[in-house]
Amino acid sequence: MRELAQALMALQELEIVQQESSIVHGRDAAAKTAELDPEIQRLRAQIPPAVLKRYTNWRRQHGVAVVREVDGVCLGCHLNVPVGDLNRMRRGDMEWQCPNCGRFLVLSK
């Protein structure tokens, strides 16, 4: 699950770079970020379709879909993630999603 969460985080970072570039460069943005497209497509291809759909919907509706968890706190909603949930996530018994806000989590070590 860690690899999936990291792939989602990398995908989100590249998509944000593209969005920022379109704001800064306007019509010239596509030419300036064309080198990102193959990497974005590669990341999208390695993410399961159901997860990619949830990720895409969250990004479209709320912006940031993947955040880090630090010391038991989701850095998206800044609420504590229950210790039991964190343990289940680390064991692989539960998806790495914040039970409070629904964002995908990249768990701390």
Q: What does the model show?
A:
The chain has one domain: Helix Hairpins (Orthogonal Bundle), CATH 1.10.287.1490. Helices cover 56% and strands 9% of the residues. It has a three-stranded mixed β-sheet, covered by helices on one side.
Which terms summarize this structure?
109 residues; mainly alpha; 3-stranded mixed β-sheet; 3 strands; elongated
Q: How many strand units?
A: 3
What is the general shape?
elongated
Overall CATH architecture: Orthogonal Bundle
Main sheet attributes: strand count, strand direction, barrel closure? 3 strands, mixed
Overall CATH class: Mainly Alpha
CATH topology grouping:
Helix Hairpins
List the strand order in the largest sheet: 2-1-3
Work out the count of structural domains.
1
> For the CA atoms, what is the radius of gyration?
15 Å
N/C terminus separation: 13 Å
Low-confidence stretches: none
> Which sequence of SSEs, written as H and E, runs from N to C?
HHHHEEHE
Q: Helix/strand-derived class?
A: mainly alpha
Oligomer, anyone? single chain
Q: Give the count of helical stretches.
A: 5
Query: How would you state the average pLDDT, rounded?
Result: 92
Strand content: 5-15%
Helix content: 55-70%
